[in-house]
Design goal:
Blueprint (H helix, E strand, L loop, with lengths): L1 E2 L5 E3 L5 E6 L1 H7 L9 E4 L7 E6 L5 E5 L7 E6 L3 E7 L5 H13 L3 E7 L7 H15 L4 E4 L5 H8 L7 E5 L6 H9 L23 E5 L5 E4 L12 H7 L1 H7 L16 H7 L5 H36 L18
Parallel strand pairs: 3-5, 8-9, 8-11, 9-10, 11-13
Antiparallel strand pairs: 1-12, 2-3, 4-5, 6-7, 12-13
Helix pairs in contact: 2-6, 6-7
Length: 333
């Protein structure tokens, strides 16, 4: 139910909660750890002051990014949710980051919604409508885009309806976009700590430092994820295809099935850019994300190859027939 700098907090079927540590076999063997939303099997020894997570049950879906501290390792941030809510501040939507967030959200297989926060900082209603329409054009007709403000209770209810009883949603977005404020609006009380907005630029400061499952009154559960700076892609081919469905549709018209939309003849995607049917910036984002995913795949293959080499060296027989030579240059006998 909660992950912070200490031990995971686990809730039992009867509602009781207990801090737990991972079994040695999980940490040292498979190197698997429970994440927020995981279902786990726990033992509670009589002589132990904490529970012990013995097993992690199979996940229905997971939010995965490339571990920013490793060259080619996946990092799971949350599991077993039904919807990803992507929060962006209306007055300063970061288009490139939104595209990346959508790719990661689509990759989970969950339903996706974009929520535009801090609409009260917009210059006027015209800006609100313009930004909302721009974001809707970017995310496509299949993704709902909601503008939320405390002055409009109906907008808050629209978000609450996305998380019905028995479901769980993950709320993502960079620091200061108003995720904690949104959770407080959904709860009807100030449960999540929020930081004061700076007078100079109207931006908030990062306040959420842990991942926690929060129960919504009369509804489901929501996870207010800490602001994630690094959103490195992992296995994101299908996510890119969903987030850039317009580009993928254009690519169907390319002369060559394996067209990379570079200098190949008969490229329908480049033709659409030249004709003004596809924005050059969106095409550049698509190409950059595809390239990033390809590089990650290559690094993973290199890592697997290196591990295989180490394993083969470790299994190599020593002594007779090993091919090692003595100082005299003759094979050892």
């Amino acid at each position: 139910m909660k992950l912070d700098r200490g031990f995971p907090l686990v809730r039992f079927p009867d509602g009781a909660t207990l801090r737990c540590e991972h079994a040695t076999a999980l940490v040292k063997g498979e190197k698997v750890r429970a994440v927020i939303g995981d279902r786990v099997e726990v033992s509670v020894p009589d002589d132990h002051d904490m529970g012990i997570i013995e097993a992690i049950l199979p996940r229905s879906r997971a939010f995965v990014r490339k571990d920013p501290t490793e060259r080619a390792v996946a990092q799971v941030l949350a599991a077993n949710f039904d919807r990803v809510i992507v929060a962006q501040p209306l007055a300063e939507v970061n288009r490139r980051r939104l595209e990346r967030e959508l790719v990661l959200a689509y990759e989970t297989g969950a339903a996706v919604t974009v929520v535009l926060t801090k609409a009260d900082l917009a210059q006027d209603d015209a800006q609100v409508r313009a930004v909302r329409d721009q974001v809707r054009a970017l995310v496509g007709p299949d993704v709902q885009t909601i503008v939320v403000t405390s002055a409009d209770p109906a907008s808050v209810e629209a978000v609450r309806a996305l998380v019905p009883a028995g479901s769980m949603a993950v709320l993502i977005g960079r620091s200061g976009v108003g995720k904690s404020s949104l959770v407080n609006l959904l709860l009807g009380e100030d449960v999540q700590e929020t930081a004061a907005v700076r007078e100079g630029d109207g931006k908030g400061r990062h306040t959420t430092v842990s991942r926690e499952v929060i129960e919504l009154p009369g509804g489901g559960r929501i996870v207010d994820m800490p602001g994630v700076r690094g959103l490195g892609l992992w296995d994101a081919d299908s996510g890119i295809g969903a987030a850039f469905a317009d580009v993928e549709a254009l690519a169907e018209g390319c002369r060559f099935r394996d067209c990379r939309h570079g200098d190949e003849p008969g490229c329908a995607v480049r033709a659409a850019v030249a004709a003004g049917e596809l924005a050059p910036e969106r095409f550049a984002s698509y190409q950059a994300l595809r390239q990033e995913t390809a590089e990650i795949k290559e690094r993973r293959e290199q890592a697997r190859w290196a591990q295989g080499e180490k394993a083969s060296h470790a299994r190599a027989p020593k002594g007779r027939g090993s091919g090692k030579r003595s100082r005299g240059g003759k094979p050892r006998r």
